[in-house]
Amino acid sequence: MPPVADLIDIRQLRRSCASCGLQELCLPAGISGDDLARLDAAVRDKRVLERGRALYRAGDAFHSLFVVRSGALKTFVTDENATQQVIGFHLPGEIVGIDALASGRHASQAEALERTSICELPFAQLEHVTSEIPALQRQLLRVISREVVQEHEHLVTMGQQQAQVRLAIFLKSLADRYNTLHRDGNHLVLPMSRHDIASYLGLVVETVSRWFTRFEDAGILEVRRKAVTILRPDLLAQMCRPAESDSGSKKARHPAAN
After folding, report:
1. d(CA 93, CA 113)
2. CA 209, 238, 147, 39 torsion-angle sign
3. Which residues form the Cyclic nucleotide-binding domain (predicted)?
4. What are the domain boundaries of the chain?
5. Which one of 21, 93, 210, 220 is at 20 to 30 Å from 184 when CA atoms are compared?
6. pLDDT > 90 in the chain, percent
C-alpha cells in the first residue's frame, strides 16, 4: 500500500484547472466554461518531483512550459568547473521553461528544492489552444511578462554593491511573492539553502550568514534555520534603499560589509 502522503499528492494532482487554487496566478485566470476544459485537456502531465530531481537540464530540447503547483524550484547554470550559478527561484503559480522559447533548447537547469508538484503544458498544444482563446493568449503573455519583471528585479538587486541591500531586497521580494499566494509574507520558510541564496545574490555564503545574523541582532528578523520571521518589515524596507541602509547599519552598530 503506498504511503498516505503519496495518496494525498495524487488526489491533489487530479484536480482540474477549474478547481485549482492557483488559477488566479496561472493561465486559467479570466477563462471559464468550455475554454477552461480545453486548457485542462492540454495539460499533459501533473506530477511530483522529489527534492534534487531535475525538471529539465541545460541543452534539453524545448517541448513544454511548466507551472509550479506546490513546492519550489531553482534554475541555474553550471560553468566548466561544475560550479552552479543560481539564476532564479520559482514558487507556486509561476512558470518555468521560458528560457528555451528563443532557441528551442533550455539554457539552464530546473531542479526541485523540495517535494514539488508541477503541471506540464506542451507548447504545441498550448499554442493551438491560445490561438483560439484570446483571453488565454493575453493571460499567457501576462504571466511571461511577470517572469521577465522578476528577472529585471534580480538584475537591479545585483547592481547593488552592498551585501545587506541585496539580502534585504531578496527577502522583501520573497515576502511580496508570499503575499501574492495569500500566505503570511512575514513568516517565510526558505526552501533554498544559504549557498543557493549566496549564489543567486552574487555573494559568498559567509557574507549571507553574517548578514542574517546582523539583521537578527538589529531586531529586523528572527531566524530559526529555514524559518525566517520578519519582525520589522518597515526596517527591512528601509534596508532595501542604499541611502538609508547605511544609517540603519549604524543604528544597529554594524559597519557595511560586502
Report:
1. 16
2. positive
3. 27-101
4. 4-156, 160-251
5. 210
6. 46
**In 3-state terms, what secondary structure has residue 32?**
coil
Do 97 and 63 touch, CB atoms closer than 8 A? no
Say if CB 194 and CB 201 are below 8 A apart.
no
- Can you give the pTM of this predicted structure? 0.76
From 156, 168, 154, select the one nearest 238 (Cα to Cα).
Answer: 168
Residue pLDDT, tens place only, 126-136? 777 777 777 77
Q: Beginning with the edge strand found earlier in the chain, give each strand of the sheet holding 227-230 in spatial order.
A: 187-189, 227-230, 221-224
Amino acid identity, position 249: S
Instruction: With residue 158 as reference, give the H or E element that holds it.
Output: helix 134-158
Cβ-Cβ contacts under 8 Å for 80 (sequence gap 6 or more):
none
Helices and strands counted in the chain (H then E): 9, 11
Cell 544597529 identifies what position? Answer: 252
Phi, psi of 250 (to 5 degrees): -65, -40
Distance between CA 134 and CA 140 in Å, rounded? 10
Which CATH number describes the domain made up of 4-156?
2.60.120.10
Burial of 234 (0-12, 13-18, 19+ CB in 10 A): exposed
Burial of 81 (0-12, 13-18, 19+ CB in 10 A): exposed
**Angle between the 134-158 and 194-201 helix axes, to the nearest 10 degrees?**
90
Residue 70: pLDDT over 70? yes
Q: What is the CATH number of domain 160-251?
A: 1.10.10.10
Q: Give the side-chain half-sphere CA count within 13 A for 236.
A: 26
List phi, psi (to 5°) of 149: -60, -40
Question: Using alpha carbons only, how large is the chain's radius of gyration in Å?
Answer: 20
